[in-house]
Structure formats: structure tokens, C-alpha cells
Specification:
There is one protein chain. This protein is an alpha/beta fold. It folds into three domains: 9-201 and 292-460, Glycosidases (TIM Barrel); 469-659, Rossmann fold (3-Layer(aba) Sandwich); 683-729, no CATH class. It is built from 19 helices and 32 strands. Helix 15 (486-500) packs across helix 19. 54% of the residues are buried.
Length: 736
């Protein structure tokens, strides 16, 4: 993940020694910043004025003459393109006494931007709490109990569950925000982006080494269990452990070979779910980890609001529901953040899976739920452009083994990414992660200036995104998955990316928002991981699907874990299709509607579901054994399609979506983003390609080479890696 580079003591001292005093003339700045939802569109308001959420991030953690030059040159390009919002690591190291914060250091960093762009405003990324410059850290007096501790005895730093860390960080954040808000620089700061002890809010190296076994984490887990179970009797029943008590409960011990997380391949039988109640301790620990993370974030959000008098925004990394593997990742309480009135901005890098030409560049989160709750999602766009100065790349960066091939690919990948944030009403910051000129070319900024006008149109006449397909992600079901890597890869990464290639308009929401009727009515709902549902949830799902007469696409084992126990009958209650368990290899060949298709993850899993319902229409059979893997039938007033595999391809999804009446804008695997007013299409391959229009809709090229038109179809010439744009018009000539 894209974390800011921690400065070494030596580098900090060199930079501090060369830093001058603040010299920029500060203008009026901004008095109040808000995110307000208008007609379902969250808008960034600066003193009441809607402002397109496009930011340039420069990593000031890598100091030196070259870094300063790249900062000046790129800030000038941003300024000339009409971008005046910036982000940076606003460091405030302790002075030599290890106690007094050196706020002047941070002000000097802001001055560097202001010297080039006097209109600069900032999203300040801050790192409150203990770091290398603190007295306790220097003197090594932090209690061992507060250090996160892996099973091998190594430590990545402080435990997020540490009460010592919590108090020190809360106090530091309040002091930091208070100091800057009281200074002339306060009116330049729009948002406080806090995090810790790991800024992206998941335990560093958990994918390699597993949980935090520190005393602090164990104590916090026991406290959480006391709230959850209240009595020893209830805990023993839940864990099926006759000797456990609330005072003696231990953190769960992982099986040999579980970490580092990795794919197991076809030959190994994969146990997908925790064996309950025997492994209920793992499910509880996973929930606890996400709860602690959400506790810290909501507390910091409250501190930002109270300390700034409610005038500034709070921002946090969280909600990596798709991209973080493992039940214990800590990011699966996004719903709590969306309900918290003090949280304004939520962010992540865009997915590291599928970043280059022809690939989707997907969101890590259920992005459309964020907007539906009136919050603003920010994509951290740290695209590895062709412009990065590799000759001067810091040695510890290994993320640039692959980058965009040339300027053409760089511009068009960034255009694809902008189309994503525009359609889904999100924001972005272009991030020069290594301070080596990733965005140092006028062509990039010329493109951004033009595309910003499309976003300004949205802000002038706010209309929410209304997709025809909704992919639904269940945070609670992620806690139940024991298989750390493969299941997440195929039901999350791959499903998101294959859906993006299917040619329809696709949104991504939480299952909880579907149940709460926050998700807009769609023609198709894809239930990605609805593995464990209560009786009430099953009933509510069926009621809504019937009311809308929608199509439900169920992936892998919907409802299997049930409210009480795991069995195939739960699947039939939810989907209306009878199944039985027959563990073996996944992978299917299509028939009927899906004749000629082939799909499915190359895995051998338990459970694997086989359709036994004679009233269901087969859609596919497992290659291993020939049993029916996929089928459809009418269930009440809605259409139910069950896919026993984890990985439907874009081609399979395309057929299912079209059969449900969804419009397909393309059919060749190109990436589509559209909100009805604009259409963006991105293709990795060159050549003349058709774009299909709904009845009565016309497409006017904004940036596209149209070589032919016929009824309902536009032929467009693509160069490899091209992104093309159209303005859509309805029958009356206005926006569709």
C-alpha cells in the first residue's frame, strides 16, 4: 500500500538545520470547510462555494534540492491548471528535548507550496503520537506491553490497542490541530488527515506475520469480549470451550503455514470458512480488530471537529474492503465511519490490481455507499507514470518495477482514473509518491484542466450516480472467511475487475446499505460474498428483490453459513435453488444462457455447492464431475441466478446483465464509466471499436475520433491504451 515515507533521524536533522522561517504572505484563506450532500451528491464546499475535489499530493518526506525542484515545477503546473488544493505529510517532529513539537518545521513545508501558489490550500496529512523524535522513543522507555508483537517476537511498532498510544496520540492531535488553527496557516488548512500507528490503519506486515499478540492487544480483546458476552457461560457456549473465561481468554493461535498469506493452488483443499463454533475465537478477534480501528478513527474525527470548532474536515484511510485480504485486516467497519457525523473524507490508493492500460483501475472500497451516506471518497492516485526519474529513485522503493510505458499511456491511464471518480462522485489526489516528477509534464495537467470542467458541471447540477448493476459487499461475511488469500482474490479483486469489463454501468455498495434501502433500485444485484445472513436479513433481501422484480446474481455460497449453522438448506432459503455440498474442484463450462462460456477459479474448495433443483434451469456444470454448478429460476417475484464458482468472467457477467435488460455500452472488455451525461471508454487495444447507444441517445465526442455512425452505434478509432470521452444527449437534445 502507498504509505508515506518515514524520515530517518539523520535526514530530519539535516532538513531542520537548513530550514528558514515562514515567509509566505498568507491571504484570506478559508474560514469553513464542509462536505454536504445535494440531491445525493456529496460536494466539497469552501466557505459555501462548491469546489471540485482534485488535489496534488507531494511527498515532502523526501527532502533535498532535487525534491524541492520537482515540488516547485509540479506545483506551478497544478496552479496553472487551476488546481490549488494540495496535500503533504505535515510533519511536526520533536525538538532536541524530545518533548516540544517543532511546528515551525511543518510551517516551512507549507511555505514551499505557498511560494509557488499563493492560493494554495491544504489537506494536511498528520502523524500524531509517538514517533522516533519523542523522548520516550529516544530513551526506549515505552513499556514493552504497548508494542505490537508478532508470533516470532518481532515488533512493527506500537499496538493500535495500546491505551498509552491512544492517550498520547489523542493529546498530540488536539495540540497539533489547535496550534495550526490558531495560526495564520490555519485558514489554509481544509482537512486533517490523521492516522496511526500505521497511517493506513492496518497492522504493518500482518499479511506476512499474522496478528498482534501484544499484552495491550490481549487486554483490549478481553475488554471487548466482556462487552460482547458479559458472562463466562455465554463465552464458553459461543467458543465451545468449557474452560475459557473472560479474564483468561487468549488471542487465537494460527495454524502453521497460514502466514505469509498466499494462494494455495488447485492441489490443496481449501477450507473457505472458519469452523464454528470451534474457531469462533478467530471470528471474534477479527471483529474486534476492525472495531478497535473504527474506535480510533471516530475518536480522532471527534477531536478534529472539537478542536477546529467544526470548521475543518476530518480524513482517514479505511474501507479497503476489496483489496485487504484476511478476516483480521481491521478495515471492515466502514459502515460505522459512514454513520459517524464527525467523519468527512475516507480514502485509499486505487487498487494495485489492474492499474495499467486496458485494466480497470478499480476502487478498493464500496465507493458508492460512501457517496450515498454524504461522505466524500478520495482515490489516492499514485500512478507510476513514465515521467518518474528512476535515476534518482530512493533505494528503498521497489514499487516502480513496472510503470506506464510512455506519456501516452500515462495520460490515458490518468484519464481513465478521472472518469472513475467523476462517475462515482469521488475525489482524487495525484500523488508524487517518491518526489521524482511523476506528474511533471504539461500534457497531464492540460488534460486534468479540461476534465475538471466535467466535474464542475456535476457540481452545478448535482445528480447522483444511478447504475443498472450493483455489486454488494458484506463486511460481516468477511469476518467468517478463514481462507486468507484465494477467496478474497476471486470473490473480491476478480469480481470487481471482471464486472468493470462487462460493458454495463456498475456501482459498488455494502450489503447493509442494500438492506437499509440506501442503494438505489437497480436491474441486477450481484451478491459478492453474502455468506452469513440472519433470518431477518434473508427475509429483507427477498422482500426487496420481489418488490423491484430484480435479478439477483449469487456468487459462490450465498447464505451458506446461515444464522445458526452452516448447511445447504440456508442457500435454498435465500436463493430458492436447492443445492448440496460436494467438495471438489471449481471451474465450469456453460450451457443454456451461458453456452460456450468457461469460468471458475482454479481451486479445490470446501464447501463446493452442487445444484440439485430439478425446477432450476442449468447454466453451467463443473468440469470436475459434471454436476450442475450454476442455475437460475424464478423465486417469488424476482429472478435468482446462482453461480457456484467464485470467478465469473466479464463475458459471463455480460450475458447475465444483458439478459436482465441492462444496456451494454461495449462488448469487447473495454472499461466504461457513465452517469448518463458523459460516457468514458478506455481500451488497452487499438483499432476501430463499436460503442452501442441506448434508444434515443446521441453521443457527441469530447475527446474521440469517430469514424462512423449507424443506428444506435458509434464507431471509434482507438490507439492502444486510449481513453475516449462523449457528451450524451437525450431525445430532447438535453443531457440524458
Amino acid at each position: 500500500m502507498a504509505t508515506s515515507v518515514a524520515l530517518s533521524v539523520a535526514v530530519f536533522l539535516i532538513v531542520l538545520g537548513s530550514l528558514g522561517t515562514a515567509s509566505a504572505e498568507l491571504g484570506a484563506g478559508v474560514q469553513k470547510v464542509e462536505v454536504k450532500s445535494t440531491n445525493g451528491v456529496p460536494r466539497l464546499l469552501l466557505d459555501g462555494k462548491p469546489t471540485v475535489p482534485v488535489v496534488f499530493f507531494y511527498n515532502t518526506d523526501i527532502p533535498g534540492p532535487e525534491s524541492d525542484r520537482y515540488l516547485r515545477e509540479q506545483v506551478a503546473l497544478a496552479r496553472d491548471a487551476g488546481v490549488h488544493l494540495y496535500s503533504l505529510p505535515l510533519r511536526c517532529p520533536r525538538r532536541p528535548d524530545g518533548v516540544t513539537p517543532n511546528y515551525e518545521y511543518g510551517k516551512g513545508l507549507l511555505d514551499k507550496f505557498l511560494a509557488v501558489d499563493p492560493e494554495a490550500l491544504f489537506l494536511a496529512r498528520v502523524y500524531p503520537g509517538p514517533n522516533w523524535s519523542w523522548k520516550e522513543v529516544r530513551e526506549k522507555t515505552i513499556p514493552e506491553t504497548e508494542q505490537a508483537r508478532f508470533a516470532d517476537g518481532s515488533t512493527p511498532g506500537l499496538s493500535i490497542a495500546s491505551e498509552w498510544f491512544r492517550k498520547a496520540t489523542n493529546d498530540d492531535l488536539a495540540d497539533l490541530v489547535s496550534h495550526y488553527e490558531a495560526s495564520d496557516y490555519g485558514k489554509r488548512i481544509l482537512a486533517w488527515h490523521a492516522g496511526g500507528p500505521y497511517h493506513e490503519m492496518f497492522l504493518e506486515d500482518y499479511r506476512q506475520k499474522g496478528p498482534d499478540y501484544s499484552d495491550a492487544n490481549r487486554a483490549a480483546f478481553r475488554k471487548w469480549l466482556r462487552v460482547r458476552y458479559e458472562t463466562d457461560t455465554a463465552l464458553r457456549a459461543a467458543w465451545d470451550a468449557p474452560d475459557v473465561t473472560l479474564e483468561s481468554a487468549l488471542l487465537p493461535v494460527f495454524d502453521p503455514g497460514r502466514f505469509p498469506m498466499r494462494g494455495k493452488g488447485r492441489d490443496a483443499l481449501i477450507q473457505v470458512f472458519y469452523d464454528l463454533p470451534r474457531e469462533q475465537n478467530w471470528l471474534d478477534f477479527s471483529e474486534f480488530t476492525s472495531d478497535v480501528t473504527a474506535d480510533r478513527i471516530t475518536e480522532w474525527a471527534r477531536i478534529v471537529k472539537e478542536t477546529s470548532g467544526g470548521r475543518k474536515l476530518s480524513a482517514f484511510f479505511c474501507g479497503y474492503t476489496v483489496d485487504l485480504p484476511g478476516s483480521l485486516a481491521g478495515h471492515y467497519r466502514l459502515g460505522r465511519l459512514l454513520e459517524c457525523p464527525d467523519v468527512d473524507l475516507v480514502a485509499s490508493p486505487y487498487s494495485y490490481m489492474g492499474r495499467f492500460a486496458g485494466e480497470p483501475g478499480g476502487f478498493m472500497c464500496p465507493v458508492d455507499s460512501v457517496a450515498a451516506h454524504g461522505k466524500l471518497w478520495f482515490n489516492e492516485d499514485d500512478t507510476r507514470t513514465s515521467l518518474v526519474d528512476l535515476a534518482n529513485l530512493p533505494e528503498h522503493f521497489t514499487l516502480f518495477d513496472k510503470r506506464c510505458a510512455d506519456l501516452h499511456e500515462s495520460v490515458n491511464v490518468l484519464e481513465r482514473n478521472f472518469g472513475s471518480i467523476l462517475a462515482h462522485r469521488a475525489g482524487t489526489w495525484w500523488m508524487d509518491l517518491v518526489s521524482r516528477g511523476a506528474f511533471n509534464h504539461p500534457d497531464l495537467w492540460h488534460m486534468l484542466r479540461e476534465r475538471k470542467e466535467r466535474y464542475a458541471d456535476v457540481y452545478r447540477d448535482p445528480q447522483p450516480y444511478r447504475p443498472e448493476v450493483a455489486v454488494l459487499l458484506d463486511e460481516d461475511s468477511k469476518f467468517c472467511v478463514k481462507d486468507d488469500w484465494d477467496t478474497n482474490y476471486w470473490t473480491m479483486y476478480r469480481l470487481r475487475d471482471e464486472s468493470a469489463k462487462a460493458g454495463a454501468s456498475v456501482g459498488c455498495y455494502t450489503l447493509a446499505d442494500f438492506l437499509a434501502n440506501i442503494v438505489p433500485a437497480c436491474k441486477v444485484y450481484v451478491f459478492a460474498n453474502a455468506f452469513r445472513l440472519s433470518d431477518e436479513q434473508i427475509g429483507a433481501i427477498r422482500v426487496r428483490l420481489d418488490r423491484e422484480q430484480a435479478t439477483a446474481v449469487w456468487i459462490y455460497a450465498p447464505g451458506y453459513l446461515g444464522p445458526h449453522s452452516a448447511n445447504a438448506e440456508n442457500v435454498a432459503r435465500l436463493t430458492g435453488i436447492r443445492v448440496e455440498v460436494a467438495d471438489a474442484a471449481l471451474g465450469s463450462t456453460g450451457e443454456g444462457l451461458l453456452a460456450g462460456e468457461s469460468w471458475g477459479a482454479p481451486l479445490t474448495v470446501s464447501p463446493r455447492l452442487v445444484v440439485t433443483d430439478a425446477a432450476a434451469q442449468p447454466l453451467g456444470r463443473y468440469r470436475a464431475g459434471g454436476q450442475v454448478s450454476s442455475a437460475e429460476r424464478q423465486h417469488g417475484s424476482h429472478r435468482s441466478l446462482l453461480l457456484g464458482d467464485m470467478d465469473p468472467t466479464a463475458s459471463v457477467l455480460r450475458r447475465l446483465f444483458e439478459s436482465a435488460g441492462c444496456h451494454l455500452w461495449v462488448r469487447g472488455g473495454e472499461i466504461v464509466q457513465t452517469d448518463g451525461a458523459f460516457l468514458m471508454v478506455h481500451s488497452g487495444e487499438g483499432g476501430v471499436k463499436p460503442i452501442f447507444l441506448p434508444d434515443g441517445v446521441a453521443a457527441e465526442p469530447i475527446e474521440a475520433e469517430v469514424v462512423g455512425r449507424s443506428d444506435g452505434e458509434v464507431s471509434v478509432r482507438f490507439l492502444p491504451g486510449d481513453t475516449v470521452w462523449f457528451r450524451l444527449r437525450g431525445p430532447d437534445g438535453g443531457p440524458r
